[in-house]
């Protein structure tokens, strides 16, 4: 097979290290040549330019979903689009629980206090998770992992999903309910739903008003599931105990970048970060060695199979 050239956009050091190791393990060094670029492939400005090139054959997304990509436009140019169907759902579920534990027990405050030799405990009181009701919105692969973890804490788990798995509910000991029941009965709500037209701003002002007083909201799924402005207003009112977010609906401009020496113009994001009862991470729920390895191997395997098929079909390149 002729060595194929791959442009890798928005590359970080951990991406390059993982992909080079995966290339070696899959014996793909002689078949694929990666050029790692820090620049992003901005769909609105450069997507069509790259697709119009006759030499571009395939676009691979390092994500489980297609949000943000125009698959239909790609098809118009005869391009193949692939993704990573699943990568370490445990990583995302574990991060959701880590965020909850940190938020609930005020770890973010305790960490900085002890760094300053302040060992007081005022303001650090949390609650037992044991016996609390946890609502899981989206009981797919990641949601199921989260359910198992919360059941291990001794929580009562409610779940909402458009395709309920009643067998799993009976076997594991959780219950499917309506979205309204979940919102009104849960002490903790964790989002694990995909982003689509029906889930955009699923947690809006109306949904937040239905939630219990002193509830906690966790989102490690997609930013636009939550109306960020409505969440800020709800937190300001004092209704929620707190929110822990790994995603944000307007994150593209800021996440994965260093803004420590720059002005951040997103007032909603700045307000969320500044609140004492919020924790935010930069879309890192997936970031484990196992997940990165799975992503790299899946994408490389997609490339190898695609180019092998081109060669078999005798397609002109």
TrEMBL record:
Matches recorded under InterPro entries: D-isomer_2_OHA_DH_cat_dom (IPR006139), D-isomer_DH_CS (IPR029753), D-isomer_DH_NAD-bd (IPR006140), D-LDH-like (IPR058205), NAD(P)-bd_dom_sf (IPR036291)
D-isomer specific 2-hydroxyacid dehydrogenase catalytic domain span: 53-309
Highest taxon of the lineage: Eukaryota
GO MF terms held by the record: NAD binding; oxidoreductase activity, acting on the CH-OH group of donors, NAD or NADP as acceptor
Gene3D superfamilies noted in UniProt: NAD(P)-binding Rossmann-like Domain
D-isomer specific 2-hydroxyacid dehydrogenase NAD-binding domain ranges (all copies): 97-285
Assigned keywords, A-Z: NAD, Oxidoreductase
Sequence similarity: Belongs to the D-isomer specific 2-hydroxyacid dehydrogenase family.
Protein name stated in the entry: D-lactate dehydrogenase
Naturally occurring in which organism (per UniProt): Rotaria magnacalcarata
């Amino acid at each position: 097979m002729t060595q194929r050239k791959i442009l890798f956009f928005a590359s970080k050091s951990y991406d390059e290290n993982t992909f080079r190791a995966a290339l070696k393990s899959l014996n793909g060094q002689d078949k694929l040549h990666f050029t790692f670029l820090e620049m992003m492939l901005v769909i609105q400005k450069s997507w069509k330019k790259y697709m119009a090139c006759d030499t571009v054959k395939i676009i691979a997304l390092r994500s489980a979903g297609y949000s943000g990509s125009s698959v239909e436009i790609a098809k118009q140019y005869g391009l193949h689009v692939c993704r990573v169907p699943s990568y370490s759902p445990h990583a995302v579920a574990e991060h959701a629980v880590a965020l909850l534990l940190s938020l609930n027990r005020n770890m973010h405050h305790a960490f900085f206090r002890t760094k300053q030799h302040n060992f007081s405990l005022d303001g650090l009181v949390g609650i037992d998770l044991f016996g609390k009701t946890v609502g899981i919105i989206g009981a797919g692969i990641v949601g199921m992992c989260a359910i198992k973890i919360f059941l291990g804490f001794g929580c009562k788990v409610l779940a909402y999903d458009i395709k309920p798995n009643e067998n799993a509910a009976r076997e594991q000991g959780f219950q499917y309910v309506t979205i309204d029941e979940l919102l009104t009965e849960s002490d903790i709500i964790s989002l694990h739903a995909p982003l689509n037209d029906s889930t955009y701003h699923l947690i809006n002002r109306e949904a937040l008003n239905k939630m219990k007083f002193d509830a906690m909201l966790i989102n490690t799924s997609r930013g636009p599931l939550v109306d960020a402005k409505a969440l800020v207003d709800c937190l300001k009112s004092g209704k929620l105990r707190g929110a822990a977010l790994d995603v944000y609906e307007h994150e593209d401009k800021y996440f994965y970048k260093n803004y420590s020496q720059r002005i951040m113009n997103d007032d909603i994001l700045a307000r969320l970060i500044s609140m004492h009862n919020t924790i935010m991470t930069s879309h890192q729920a997936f970031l484990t060695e196992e997940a990165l390895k799975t992503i790299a191997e899946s994408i490389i395997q997609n490339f190898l199979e695609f180019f092998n098929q081109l060669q078999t079909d005798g397609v002109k390149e």
